[in-house]
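Encode chain A's predicted structure.
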Amino acid sequence: MHESPVTEISKESVPGEPAAPPVMGWALLAVPVLGLVLLGAHSLRAGTMWDLFAVLTVAGLCLSRLAWTRIVAAAVLLWGCLVWVKTGMDFVQMRMMLGLPWVRLAWILGGVTAFSLLGALLLLSPRAVRRFNERQDAAVPQAVTFLLTALLLWICREKATRIPLLLADRFVPGSGVLEIALIALYAAVACGWLLDRKKARKARSFIWAMFSAVFFGQLALGLAGVERLLMTGALHLPVPALIIAGPLFRGDGFFMLIMFAISVLLVGSAWCSHLCYIGAWDDRLSRMHHGAPQPLPHWAAKFRWLVAVLVFATALGMRFAGVPIFTAVWLAAMFGMLGVAVMVFFSSRSGSMVHCSAFCPLGLAGNVFSRISPWRLAINDRCTRCGACKRVCRYNALDDAVLEKGRPALSCSLCRDCTTVCTHGAMELRFPFLSPRAAERTFVTVVVTLHAVFFAVARM
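Encoded structure for chain A:
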């Protein structure tokens, strides 16, 4: 006769502790799940069915054994305690004002609050640690990524008063909260992928390409007539250089520039390897080349400086010369097509991301201004010059000279491909006052959170 999973849970014991009775195994899952269902029912009572679905999504996480899910469920239950306390205070105050009995109501809601708190404490107990035992090494970063993503998207949703930012709200009003839960779930999974050194290289390329496909897919469908897939309908060319060149020409329109600056401040030059909607194209085309990426000529770095100066100076010059917007748009479109040609004819043949590391003006700006960000990739004295890192770097940032200096070239985008293949622990991501391991976990948490938020709200 096979025993149920819950019976098996009840038999687990923590070293140094007596075995718990069978009821403890049931409580470990039943109490938190029921607490979440009660919280969802409260949302449904308030007339928000989609809030119920979002909370049930979190409740469903409790059925897995992934370590991060218990932390997320516990956090939601603790938030639920605050909801129950506020609800109880509001109801008691209202009944007191109407002269109605309120003591029994206070006891009931106090009991629900205590029940939710018990569910959270059970999920944070040592026995729950044994129950949710998969990927414990990444539990905290994944849970924080889930919660940060959900919080930022909730703030975006609440603050966007003119137009709904989330697609779900545009098609089915009120359903944005379920989209938030699902995007946060995706973010936690992506964080786990990027923290797994065996999966990180392919996973980064995959989620980056998916972001770009969704971004341009929405643009194409929006132009085809599904206008709700566009942000405002005020279109601009999806050429990265225009994030800087556009405001230089117009004298306004600084939203994307501010977003770019915040991203660079938070994750340095990782904008170019995780968040840029065009960079994903260069990445995919460079992977068409078989074998290690070919190093670019030494003049490539200077050429990118020349391109940046010409592009930004031209934008500013056209503004003062009063060049018509129509002419400026055509010039920008031609520059964008030239960038695509660089990817097709050079990146695909060399294996290096020529567009990103030797052509794109915005990439250069990201590399330069990333110096104000505290993130650094360092090469320590454990380096044996085996060349494994050079064979995976597509940003032309690693050669013998920079290995001797102990730091990558300016074109490094913090993609971390080199750290995943270095078997000597010589490639380290550093942040002040953090160990390399803590720095890597923090970096992945921040960059995946930004990726997930951009995934949900970035559109034309």
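DSSP finds 21 helices and two strands in the chain.
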